[in-house]
Amino acid sequence: MAKKLKVGVIGVGGIARAHFPGWMESPDAEMIAFADIDRAILEERGKQQDIKLLYDTGYDLIANKDIDIVDICTPNMFHAPLAIAAMQAGKHVICEKPLAPAPGEIRKMIAARNKSKKLLMTAQHFRFDGKSEAMKAMIDQGVLGNIYHARSWMLRRSGAPTKPTFIWKEKSGGGPCIDIGVHILDLTLWFMGHPKAVSVTGVTQDKLCKLKGQFSTWGGPIPKRWDVEEFAAAMVRFDTGATLVLEVSWLLHHKTDSEDMQMWLYGVDGGIHWPSNEILSTNYKAQQLINQQVLLAHTTEPHAKECMVFAKTVAGGGKSPVPPEESLDVITILDGLYKSAKAGKEVRL
Ligand SMILES: NC(=O)c1ccc[n+]([C@@H]2O[C@H](COP(=O)([O-])OP(=O)(O)OC[C@H]3O[C@@H](n4cnc5c(N)ncnc54)[C@H](O)[C@@H]3O)[C@@H](O)[C@H]2O)c1
Prior knowledge:
By secondary structure, this protein is α/β, with parallel strands linked by helices. It folds into 2 domains: 5-126 and 301-322, Rossmann fold (3-Layer(aba) Sandwich), CATH 3.40.50.720; 129-298 and 331-348, Dihydrodipicolinate Reductase, domain 2. The protein is 34% helix and 27% strand. It has 12 helices and 17 strands. The protein has helices spanning 16-25, 39-49, 58-62, 79-88, 103-116, 130-140, 164-167, 169-172, 176-179, 181-192, 302-316, 324-343, and strands at residues 5-10, 29-35, 53-55, 69-72, 92-96, 120-123, 147-156, 197-205, 215-216, 220-221, 231-238, 243-249, 259-267, 271-274, 278-283, 288-293, 347-348. The protein has a 9-stranded mixed β-sheet with strand order 16-15-14-13-7-12-11-8-17. The chain has a 6-stranded parallel β-sheet with strand order 3-2-1-4-5-6, sandwiched between helices. The protein has a two-stranded antiparallel sheet with strand order 9-10. The longest helix is centred in the last third of the chain and has 20 residues, at 324-343. It starts with a strand and ends with a strand. The mean pLDDT is 97. The site of nicotinamide-adenine-dinucleotide has 24 residues, from loops.
């Protein structure tokens, strides 16, 4: 049996815990090291997962010559410097979303990837969900025909993550636009086949987060320091003539128990709704409307699956399961949204 790839995880506070099962179940990889700037969290996770190699900085972990794969789960603003250092040290990198919150940083990561010839993948776990994989396979068979419009949203009524990781701009680079906008926009562009965006009209709002007594059912009282938007919306035009309306929010008087994440794609031959996974089409000859249910591709937990797929790709060869070029498309649109909101008009990309 081939030697297992050795994985080091940087930033083991929150979402990293969803990656651990994937590394543990992977036949291709094993976790051997953790790094975190918070010593208490580092030691707690080390004990929980029986990991003995514990580093106080990501750069110390990267210096370990035995490590083949670096898994970056720090706040957004640290993704690019750590990923670039890891690739320069000859490691393959899987990095939490957003790959980086600004297009320029992602371009630098792509340049480092090109120079190192290592794999760089964005951890867009929704792509690895059984519903998404099944729907993508149907779309790739051409059930929609020419897709000319999309509506995508990820809206929470009282779902602001109140940690500095998300609400201090110096750590996050932005609010829900950057945090959850990347999820639904990445999935939408992937389903649409990555048409090139040519312009964006965007707005952002920070009204509810300022109200006295405001709280989040996802994180308690809203802290005094809050640097980012709470809501963003955009209309995007693509070079294919297709359009997209996008809405994201952490705080909104919207009817949902926790989170309302949906996507509608409309093509000439059919439409889809995700995550209910229905395909809507018409038999004009029989004068019938057809609703088709798409079955799950699998039931594996998607964070675990993305790690296993990455390890398999590193071990067996092949292109990155979520290439950074596709994440650059996502962040270019969201960066355009912010620029448009600031300018108060449409911006060309
Ligand atoms: N895919 C998803 O579903 C999902 C969900 C939540 C968060 N995320 C992403 O994961 C990342 C982390 O979010 P989180 O919720 O785990 O945050 P978190 O604040 O809970 O954990 C981040 C950890 O990184 C550590 N850290 C901070 N700066 C560091 C540095 N420079 N070097 C090493 N360690 C450092 C912190 O001490 C903390 O333990 C973010 O990029 C976020 O967007 C993804």
